[in-house]
């Protein structure tokens, strides 16, 4: 399994520098004062680098919602009970979750992957890739074995490969898993050497007392398991989660296919940090959609070297912020394809002063 992942990693290259240059040049001849479309221009340049063309057009958009459970829930780290994960799985499949609504509006398809839900889910639309029934309790031992972490990463890669084969041109990372902000905070601490109190937030909405307890749980898990910060798979297996591993694989698969991957919130950010640890150039293919209300996400994006496009105080997960960002991606790509140039519209350029 390691060899198959290494093969994918070896194919991931930086963004296309020439397409970046062509995009910058095109932005300067469009009918607007230079730089006046602000961050939309930066987005257009990044998309050019990813897609290898300064005038990209994106058709099929796929939100991949990886769902899994977390043994650490038994420590009382979430405001909600674990069974919500399986219940929400059916909500996604029925089209009633927040991300389903926003995806319909943005013309995106939602795919639910069972990568480690603690219960059984059966539905014709489900992508069944269960590695195990929930992770182990990281406060008492490793979350999973190294083999299970590799299997989950590989599952994410194969989901990406299959979606690209069926026409996906943009990915959005989504997830569902009660307890997964604890695992994501632990991954952030382990990879970036950050203290638990900086990385841990309120997740689904815990009070001050539970927050102090959650920080102590993450501290204990890190001390007990001593994950190796130089080894992304070790971090995943000791203090990660199955959906975090699956999303890390999805990001690697997207980067391998040179398809933009829009990151949602805190959990997607943890997966992105793992992908970066495994393949530093994968960051070139990531678009940070929004800054989550979850404490620690800002720092996470800083460590990824990415700037979020939206700041709406979202903290739902599922891919909701990522899907909202599709409207901006569509805007940036249409500007590059449809906006007139000074020459084509007969508009005078700036006077040199
Ligand atoms: O995306 C985010 O930034 C985000 C922030 C807080 C919570 N969530 C969602 O809430 C769940 C995890 O919260 P918790 O408190 O159970 O760890 C999980 O299903 C996530 O999708 C997501
Ligand atoms: C209801 C509910 C929906 C969610 N969607 C993502 N995380 C969630 C957590 C809860 C509790």
UniProtKB/TrEMBL annotation:
Gene3D superfamilies according to UniProt: 1.10.1610.10, 3.40.50.10210
InterPro entries on file: Nict_dMeBzImd_PRibTrfase (IPR003200), Nict_dMeBzImd_PRibTrfase_bact (IPR017846), Nict_dMeBzImd_PRibTrfase_N (IPR023195), Nict_dMeBzImd_PRibTrfase_sf (IPR036087)
Pathway: Nucleoside biosynthesis; alpha-ribazole biosynthesis; alpha-ribazole from 5,6-dimethylbenzimidazole: step 1/2
Active site: 318
Any one GO MF annotation of this record: nicotinate-nucleotide-dimethylbenzimidazole phosphoribosyltransferase activity
Keyword presence, Cytoplasm: no
Keywords from the named record: Cobalamin biosynthesis, Glycosyltransferase, Transferase
HAMAP family named among the record's database cross-references: CobT
NCBIfam families: cobT_DBIPRT, PRK00105.1
The protein, known as: Nicotinate-nucleotide--dimethylbenzimidazole phosphoribosyltransferase
Lineage, top ranks: Bacteria, Bacillati, Bacillota, Bacilli, Bacillales
């Amino acid at each position: 399994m390691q060899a198959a992942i290494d093969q994918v990693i070896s194919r991931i290259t930086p963004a296309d520098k020439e397409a970046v240059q062509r995009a910058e040049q095109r932005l300067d001849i469009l009918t607007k004062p230079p730089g006046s479309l602000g961050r939309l221009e930066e987005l257009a340049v990044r998309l050019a680098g990813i897609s290898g063309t300064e005038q990209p057009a994106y058709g099929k958009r796929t939100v991949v919602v990886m769902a899994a459970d977390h043994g650490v829930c038994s420590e009382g780290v979430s405001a909600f009970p674990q069974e919500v994960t399986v219940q929400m799985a059916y909500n996604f499949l029925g089209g009633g979750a927040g991300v389903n609504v926003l995806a319909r509006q943005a013309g995106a398809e939602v795919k639910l992957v069972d990568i480690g839900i603690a219960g059984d889910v059966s539905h014709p639309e489900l992508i069944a890739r269960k590695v195990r029934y929930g992770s182990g309790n990281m406060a008492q031992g490793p979350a999973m074995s190294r083999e299970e972490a590799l299997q989950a990463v590989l599952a994410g890669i194969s989901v990406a490969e299959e979606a690209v084969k069926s026409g996906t041109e943009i990915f959005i990372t989504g997830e569902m898993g009660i307890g997964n902000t604890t695992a994501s905070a632990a991954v952030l601490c382990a990879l970036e050497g950050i203290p638990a109190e900086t990385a841990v937030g309120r997740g689904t909405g815990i009070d001050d007392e539970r927050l102090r307890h959650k920080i102590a749980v993450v501290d204990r898990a890190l001390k007990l398991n001593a994950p190796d910060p130089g080894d992304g798979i070790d971090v995943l297996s000791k203090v990660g989660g199955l959906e975090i591993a699956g999303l890390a694989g999805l990001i690697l698969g997207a980067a391998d296919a040179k398809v933009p991957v829009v990151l949602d919130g805190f959990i997607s950010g943890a997966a992105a940090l793992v992908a970066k640890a495994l393949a530093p150039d994968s960051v070139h293919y990531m678009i940070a959609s929004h800054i989550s209300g979850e404490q620690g996400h800002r720092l996470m994006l800083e460590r990824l070297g990415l700037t979020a496009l939206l700041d709406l105080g979202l903290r739902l997960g599922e891919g909701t912020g990522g899907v909202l960002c599709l409207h901006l991606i569509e805007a940036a790509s249409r500007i590059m394809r449809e906006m007139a140039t000074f020459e084509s519209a007969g508009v005078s350029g700036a006077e040199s002063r």
